[in-house]
Amino acid sequence: MSSERDEIQVVSAAPRDFWQLREAMVSRKDQLPKRLAQVAAYAMANPDDVAFGTAASIAVKAEVQPSTLVRFAQAFGYQGFSDLQEVFQDRLRDRTSSYSERLRALDTHTGGNAKTAALFAGFCDGIERSAEALRERVPVERIDAAVMLLAQAETIYLVGQRRSYPVSSYLSYAFGKLGVKSVLVGSPQGTDPETLGFAGPRDAAIAVSFTPYASAALAYTRQVAEQNVPLVVITDSPFSPLITKDCVWFEVVEADFEGFRLLSATMALAMTLAVAVADARRA
Amino acid sequence: MSSERDEIQVVSAAPRDFWQLREAMVSRKDQLPKRLAQVAAYAMANPDDVAFGTAASIAVKAEVQPSTLVRFAQAFGYQGFSDLQEVFQDRLRDRTSSYSERLRALDTHTGGNAKTAALFAGFCDGIERSAEALRERVPVERIDAAVMLLAQAETIYLVGQRRSYPVSSYLSYAFGKLGVKSVLVGSPQGTDPETLGFAGPRDAAIAVSFTPYASAALAYTRQVAEQNVPLVVITDSPFSPLITKDCVWFEVVEADFEGFRLLSATMALAMTLAVAVADARRA
DNA sequence: GAATTCATGGAATGAATATTTCAAATCGCG
DNA sequence: CGCGATTTGAAATATTCATTCCATGAATTC
Predict the structure, then answer these.
(1) What average pLDDT does chain B have?
(2) CB of B71 under 7 A from strand D?
(3) Hey, are the CB atoms on B170 and A162 less than 8 Å from each other?
């Protein structure tokens, strides 16, 4: 063993972050053997292909042997090609996961300060991604449909438990300010089913709920549907159990971070509805 | 061959585009068997995992058998799971496609009421501007200071009225989930001053309030300060009357649109605090 | 210019993976 | 309640894939 002490010991540090790897590749590109340099060039030019392809398919496109890919990965300290490929995949993967990984890394390496920074940055990014997703997934026509439905309602019932409660309560605040009659269902008192009992076809309801769905929210929504109350649902999947046959539903994908979702996109949608409804009533 | 003409010929139409596939999944979700629906829901919620994972790893996460994934793919006209997976990968591949998709989406989106569209766009933009402002104005060191203060507290009192109430209530939810003892002050019952009376120097409080400051929030905050309770303030101006001499305060500028503020930046800051505090306690 | 190290191509190997198959379970319908 | 059809779970199978190995070729050094 001791006779092998001067073998490859440098292996230890293989960059887990794509940008670190990129830097390593750039800095070493002149010392790299011909074929390995070829691989590096291809990987930099087509990182997406590296992320998804198989060793064989990439080898063909980069015009090298599959074994060269393995050697390349090992030259950078990875165990094999698959190991290196992960780095390329993480680059594309949902950012949240890469963030929580970064957090875990920070946890062991540095003090709490850096961790807070990463946490904060993660939430800031989360906001922006939520905004992007919101724009992509919510069709304006459907907002119009919901507004029409809500504008005709006598009273708007707001259903939202647990995580969704802040949204409902903000809606309640907004409707109040806008002069739209609304009732917040989900108060700490237990009279909610009775309150909801007054709702009828001439009213409307907005239910907000995300996985894991609070059982109460589900029950209330069903009750509302059975009473033929026009319904608007804000949830996180088209497969949500809250969605009934003729409700107007919205899918809102909130960036999930450390198990907590910022409600920014949901809030934005809710506010859009509130303001648009008030506006429609004025006309 | 002709003897097999009446077998499954419907295979022809398998969507090669992610969004088409998505639509197909949504429209067929009610006719799908239980496990296939389960796969559909998982795929919609975690498209990235589907893109990168293996049939086995996805099956575990979606809590089905690998074979079910194959069946699912075939049910939508694909040859097998790998064939379907390509669609999920292409979504992540070159961003250009996702950009053009987004443009196409915008096209169809603008079909509705122009005013609604403007409103919606305004709120979406608002989110992003809030995120930007948040990053700029909040120094990480101060977050650390607040976290330190809160991590030592026995009980964390949460003060937030009216517009800020959703933030406080979400904090209450988050702290509850994270196992941090907290009390939400601002319940519909009028016992708040008494509740706050229990707070002392060994506790801490988070007050959230924006202009126009709810008088109750102001009063509560003063009361808390007088009882020498360490205080963290989230507000919208360095001149806010809530800020006391030795509290840790944050200025959060929410984009204002049509007189309504989305609470996205405030939520993000609040969540950062909550998660960081829970983390600090673990250590 | 010979010897040694290093890089490379190509095939063999063994592990991991998608897919198929079949029996059991569940559901719908008479 | 019982029959057939559909759905589901679990294991068997066949494929694909990453990796290793070894012989050959190129480059470097003495």
Answers:
(1) 82
(2) yes
(3) no
> Side-chain half-sphere of B159: how many Cα atoms within 13 Å?
32
Distance separating alpha carbons of residues B283 and B281, to the nearest angstrom: 5
Selected for mutation to probe chain A from B29, B39, B46, B52 (highest A CB count within 10 Å) is B52
* pLDDT tens, residue by residue, A237-259: 888 888 888 899 999 988 777 67
- Count the alpha carbons within 13 Å of B261 in the hemisphere toward its beta carbon: 23
Smallest Cα distance from B196 to chain A, Å:
18
Q: Interhelix angle for B34-45 vs B55-62, to 10°? A: 100
Domain B132-282 sits in CATH 3.40.50.10490: yes
Distance CA B252, CA B133 (A): 8
Q: Rounded to the nearest 10 degrees, what angle do helices A264-282 and A165-178 cross at?
A: 20
Domain residue limits, chain B = 2-92, 132-282
Please name the fold of domain A2-92: Arc Repressor Mutant, subunit A (1.10.10)
Nearest Cα residue in chain A from B283: A112
Q: Which residues contact A226 (CB under 8 A, 6 or more apart)?
A: none
CATH topology of domain A138-282: Rossmann fold (3.40.50)
Model pTM?
A: 0.76
